[in-house]
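W.,

You were right to be curious about this one. When I first looked at the sequence I had no strong expectations either way, so I just let the prediction run and decided to look at it fresh. Below is the sequence, 241 residues in total, followed by the output.
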Amino acid sequence: MEPLQLTVVLPAYNERHRIGRYLESIRLYMEAHYPDGYEVIVVDDGSTDGTAELVEQMGAGWPSLRLIRHEHNQGKGAAVRTGVLAGRGKRILFADADGAAPIDQEVRLAEAIAQGADIAVGSRLLPCHSQQVVRRKSRGLFGRMFAALARRVLRLPVRDTQCGFKMFRAEAAQDLFHHVQQRGYLFDLELLGLAVRRGYKIAEVPIRWTDVPGGHFHPLRQLPRILFDLLRLWFRLRQAG
């Protein structure tokens, strides 16, 4: 089977009330820009709110939409990994299911890939007058502080490590995600750390982003665990060289 132009992966955990609108915007965009050359993979990560059933209903009239289900919740990193490894596109994009990054921003990442990058990272922190970023102050402050810490500890060439909008050449994606072990919040850091150590070219690209209420991640509540996992990741990547 001939490769598709683009695979879009959406990890979803109890996203019934947010994912439908985003999927509809993706469908309209992809049909206009990638007719017969794309797929959308939703990985339902053990949802209990009917997310999978909603996606199945939408997929009944949309052959390019695929649903993969985890029987139990495994974490965002695990869901992204499942979707990426199942992808058939020449380029693979993963995005947050809430639609904080409009799907039309993929063209900015695609341009970076076309110019030679193996990985294009969407960024809410790079200055760009034409790309509006709307974030809650508390989330934005935590995100900037954590990204700065992670960048320094793991020596990463990316300012916005945690942005949930990243694109890969298929070969790079398959290689990296076969080695990623982190299942939760820090999978982005492991992914980027491995990419640096394996010599992949990374480009960071400013994108439009708007926080969408209703997320499941509570950074301050989970901070001790995050810092502990960051320390373990630093040690593992250091051992890997």
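Here's what jumped out at me. The longest strand covers residues 4-12. And, maybe more interesting for your project: The radius of gyration is 17 Å.

Coffee later to discuss?

I.
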